Amino acid sequence: MISRWITPEDATLERAAIYTFHSVIAKGWRKGRLLLAGDACHQTPPFLGQGMCAGIRDCVNLAWKLEAVFGGRARDSLLDTYESERSPHVRAFIQLAVDLGGIIQTTDPEIARKRDARFACEEPRMFDFPQPQLGPGVWISGGMPAGQVFPQPRLDDGRRLDEVAWSGRFCLLGHASFLGEGVPQLEERIAAAGVVVVMQSGREICQWLSLHQAQGVLLRPDRYVFTLLRTNADLLRALSVLEQHLIPTPWVKAV
User: pLDDT by residue (tens digit) across 86-120?
Assistant: First the structure.
């Protein structure tokens, strides 16, 4: 295989290793205090370059949940949503990597000939990069973009959202008029749920809300969309669902 560049007269091969990849997903990512992440619970072929990215997403998903449990703001059962949320997400990326691998490394001469002929005719097969929703867990289903990652917008004062919203906390973004005026004890419930309210949303966030025809959005600590908010009733419902997962902590205040 390397005879074009080097021959036995030039060097001696001391070792040859065959690289083998896998496309597997473990069943059961948690057993008590033991939690698996990254390649320990899912392995993907290299053709999409998403193996490490998947591991990082695992850790970000776990980080805020572990922090909430150890901080006494959530029950131990919150950790059971880790696998249910991440497993379908990982599966979508692994499937695409497998499909890409079938094109890149096929060993069937006829399949390779047809592939090359399509490329020569400028008719390549197009793939859409996955933007899957999380699996069942700590978010309210009801269509996109709920369960998808939120962009990292810049506020009008130049700061990024993560510079304003506290790490490890849910974040409420919305128009200034959408904060439930006239709804009894709403601010107290927001504070007890550990939700940070960002008032100075900025142009980028307003454009995102307009695109999705929403008045506000509730984000998880890992910046996935918990739910869109169009009315005060949506906000009250979101807080009720959130309270099912978190233990109210009145020492956290909205800002």
Answer: 999 999 999 999 988 888 888 899 999 988 888 88
Show Cβ contacts of residue 160 under 8 Å, excluding neighbours closer than 6 positions: 152, 153, 154
* pLDDT of 96: 92
CATH of region 24-120: 3.50.50.60
71 contact partners, CB below 8 Å, separation of at least 6: none
Phi/psi-derived region of residue 41, left when phi > 0, alpha when psi is between -120 and 50, beta in every other case: alpha
Q: Which amino acid is at 200?
A: Q
- Which residue from 46, 40, 29, 2 is spatially nearest to 137, judged by alpha carbons? 29
Encoding tokens for residue 160? 């990024």
d(CA 179, CA 172): 9
CATH 3.40.309.10 fits 161-245, yes or no: no
